[in-house]
Structure formats: structure tokens, C-alpha cells
Amino acid sequence: MLVKIPLSWLREYCEIPWSPNELADRLTMSLLEVDDVTTVGLNYDNIVVGEVRSAERHPNADRLSLCTVDTGDQMLEIVCGAPNVEAGQHVPVALIGARVAGDLKIKKSKIRGVLSRGMICSEAELNLSDEADGIMVLDSESPVGRPLIEVLGERETVLTVDVGTNRPDCLALIGVAREVVALTGERVRMPSDAVNETGAPIDELVSVTVADYADCPR
Predict the structure, then answer these.
(1) Which residues does the UniProt record annotate as the domain TRNA-binding (predicted)?
(2) What domains appear along the chain, each with residue ranges and CATH number?
């Protein structure tokens, strides 16, 4: 079974003194096979949260939309080819100078005779997933003009671990953390299991009487 292990989460449970690729090699040599090491997301420089104020059909292309997008400090006209773009959406907007997946630099460009001043991004263009059929729609509470990195967080390195049927303990992060500390000689930082109890003690709320000790010895 393939399990995705975000390194930022794994680091909450153990120290990792190696690079992601070296960690993957060491885990694989210890018989916990790592199939892949990927980085999800971008640096998100010059990519902000925008609000689509209007989305009208492009005057020269039936399958394109001409959108007016509020990015907090300016209104931009952006040509968008996504079928799911609608007015009122909060969306990731790559401003002029931003770089998206494939190291594509965003520039002012005329698309079917209309100047487009940015890009409304899909998840694929942000290197978050392979989803490229439509733009990424953010939560409506995402503040307009806020840098996208403050909304989505830093980019993440993820290990894809092939967990065998004999290692169900490694289906959880703590199990993988135990494998790491077996290599480093450190200790796992276990999460707290403390529970905040409120209200009256349970023995003041309910009592149990055993009527037949023969059939119910405990």
C-alpha cells in the first residue's frame, strides 16, 4: 500500500538530520521502501488571492472568459480558459513576473486580441496536483490580496512509501518515525495523550450492580 508522508508532519515526531533524498535512501535500505520524493507547491512569489468580480464571454472566442479580478490593490483584466470560472470566486492569481509550474513566467499577453494581465491558476499550475481541467477555487474567507503562501502554507516535500502487508505499523506517521529514530539513535516525540476531564466524577453519575457473579465474574 502506498502511503504519503509529509516531511513537515514527520518532523513533529522525530529529528531528521538528512536531506529528503538521503532519508529516502536510508529508509529503503532499512527495508521500508520509498517509491518517490516529490515537492508539492511553489515558492508562490507574486501569487496572491484574488476575487473574480465578473466573468464574461471573450468577445473573440467562445471558450474563453474575460474576467475582472480584484487583487486587493488593483483590478486586472485576465483572459481565462477554465470552464468553471465564475464571478464571486476567490482564486489564486499569478501576477506579472510570477512563475508557475514548468517555470513559466507570467507576462502581459494578448489572447485573441485582448490584453491579459495575469493568470488565474489551476492546481496543476501551482504544482499542487495534476488537476488541470479548471481553476483552483479557494475558500471564500481567504482575504483578497493576501499572498497565496500565507493561505496555503510553505511548499511541502512528500515521501511516497510502499508499506508491505507485514508492516501495518508504518501505515501511520509514528510508525515511520520509529523507523527514522532506529537509524538516528534518537527518540520518538510521542504526542500527548492527556485528556482534559470536566464535570463530576463518573462514579457519581452512574453505578453498576452485578446480579449474577457466576455468569459475569468481572
Answers:
(1) 41-149
(2) 2-41+155-184 (3.30.56.10), 47-151 (2.40.50.140)
Query: Environment class of residue 86 by beta-carbon count within 10 Å: exposed (0-12), middle (13-18) or buried (19+)?
Result: middle
CA distance 85 to 81: 8
**CA distances from residue 204 to 46, 150, 198, 200, 209 in whole angstroms, order as listed:** 60, 48, 13, 7, 14
Q: What is the pLDDT of residues 124-171, one digit of tens each?
A: 999 898 999 999 999 999 999 999 999 998 889 999 999 999 999 999
Tell me which residue of 105, 101, 103, 109 sits closest to 80, measured CA to CA: 109
Beta-carbon contacts of 38 under 8 Å, excluding residues fewer than 6 positions away, are 157, 158, 160
Of 47, 51, 145, nearest to 97 by C-alpha is 47
Torsion angle, alpha carbons of 36, 148, 106, 75, to 10: 160
pLDDT tens-place string over residues 28-72? 999 999 999 998 887 889 999 999 999 999 999 999 999 999 999
For residues 86 and 211, what is the distance between their CA atoms, to the nearest angstrom?
Answer: 67
pTM summary value: 0.68
